């Protein structure tokens, strides 16, 4: 089968189902099915029958709104290519800015200790450790599959982080106090209607109680007694979570994302 024929047919199927950017989706799925870099889809002429069959299996999954990342098993985060298991929360582009803000908050701190709470694929923890090799990074997740996913990513990338299974801070009681706590917690208010693709992701990584702030406030209130004296927190939030109950021991600011929405909460101990 010719490459352009396959791409056009994939586009036609996805477009009919209302998938956004159907041609780009087709290119990504064909490249994954064939084991190509994406640019190779533009220079190859023919695809073998077995690859064509795999590609159209992928198209059928995407037609059912399965996220592209679950089909290909990969996701880009900053400069990292991560494996993402089906059923593990898929990192979003806005979380890259959370990781960058976290890095800025530990500038000037020698050998910082960082806790990444609700690590998922390990994306934030791995990026921080890659950019700050002197950091000691501990990450936790309540989901066993997420812990396995993060461990595999760390091993595959050759980046040394400690990934522990448990609820928030529970696996960290015997660890050194952190200079920084960073998290992209569940923050969607319960009952909010979600796009079909998002419904494939784990509910415990999405929903954060009635106003979406249950886990956020647990992290803040449990974390304040764990942080070092001048420790900091960087937490991804949604505007619907505001106002938050922030203890008086913190000064704080909220940064907006490129869409102008309040997205990153930064807390700094005042004492």
Outline the fold blueprint:
Blueprint: H1 3-16, H2 22-34, H3 49-63, H4 68-72, E1 74-77, E2 80-83, H5 93-105, E3 113-117, H6 123-131, E4 136-141, H7 144-157, E5 162-165, E6 180-183, H8 214-223, E7 232-236, E8 250-256, E9 262-269
Parallel strand pairs: 3-4, 3-6, 4-5, 6-7
Antiparallel strand pairs: 1-2, 7-9, 8-9
Helix pairs in contact: 1-2, 1-3, 2-3, 5-6
If you had to describe this structure to a student in words, what would you say it looks like?
The N and C termini lie far apart (67 Å). The chain has helices at 3-16, 22-34, 49-63, 68-72, 93-105, 123-131, 144-157, 214-223; strands at 74-77, 80-83, 113-117, 136-141, 162-165, 180-183, 232-236, 250-256, 262-269. The protein has a seven-stranded mixed β-sheet, sandwiched between helices. A two-stranded antiparallel sheet has the order 1-2. The model has no long low-confidence stretch (mean pLDDT 94). The longest helix has 15 residues, at 49-63. It folds into two domains: 3-64, Helicase, Ruva Protein, domain 3; 74-269, Rossmann fold, CATH 3.40.50.150. It is elongated and about 65 Å long. It has 271 residues and is of the alpha/beta class.
